[in-house]
Amino acid sequence: MDNDFKRGEYVISTDRTRLDLGVVHGFLTKSYWAEGIPREVVRRSVQQSLCFGLYHQGKQIGFARVITDYSTFGYLGDVFVLEEYRGRGLGKWLVEVIMSYPQLQGFRRWILLTRDAHLLYKPFGFRLLANPERWMERWDAAVYQRDQAR
Q1: How many CA atoms lie within 13 Å of 106's alpha carbon, on the beta-carbon side?
Q2: Which of 61, 91, 59, 55 is CA-nearest to residue 76?
Q3: Which of 45, 58, 115, 149 is the most buried (most CB within 10 A)?
Q4: Tens-place pLDDT, residues 117-132
Q5: Cβ distance 118 to 76 under 8 Å?
Q6: What share of residues in the chain are helix, strand, coil (percent, to 5)?
Q7: Do 75 and 111 form a contact (C-beta atoms < 8 A)?
Q8: Contact 101, 89 (CB under 8 A)
């Protein structure tokens, strides 16, 4: 079920067919969290996630995705607004739409990772881990560099 949300001349849509993979990959491959990510990995991640595209006059200017089981858990990731559109409250609106999206209600746990956007997420109830000693990760920081070398 695709939905559109409008605010002035901006639209947020869950219609995956509207996404401009070039914009999404172009931003992510230069981001601190996905630097060098191959386009094919971005394509697969979009196929397997609930995606939210942010548009201005038909042009994609932002993105976010949720990895979820639609019942208990959601991981909010790859959130961005292109630099020339920042400072207009669009990132906050994008997170607001995601957090109020009907199919994403009633989860026991939401998580995300951020280096510098804590203030964006705090109003939506995100906090530092209550019990970080319970969390474990398997992290391969060089996976995209190795994939490109093959």
Answers
A1: 5
A2: 91
A3: 45
A4: 999 999 999 999 999 9
A5: no
A6: 35, 25, 40
A7: yes
A8: no
* CA 149 – CA 110 distance, rounded (Å): 34
In the chain, the amino acid numbered 79 is V
Q: How many CB atoms lie within 10 A of CB 76?
A: 23
Structure tokens, 43 = 């394509």
Q: What is the CA radius of gyration of the chain?
A: 16
DSSP-assigned beta bridge partners for residue 77: 65
3 state DSSP class of 78: strand
What is d(CA 135, CA 129) in angstroms, rounded to the nearest whole number? 9
- Please write down the HEC assignment for all residues of 90-130: HHHHHHHHHHHCHHHCCCCEEEECCCCCHHHHHHHCCCCCC
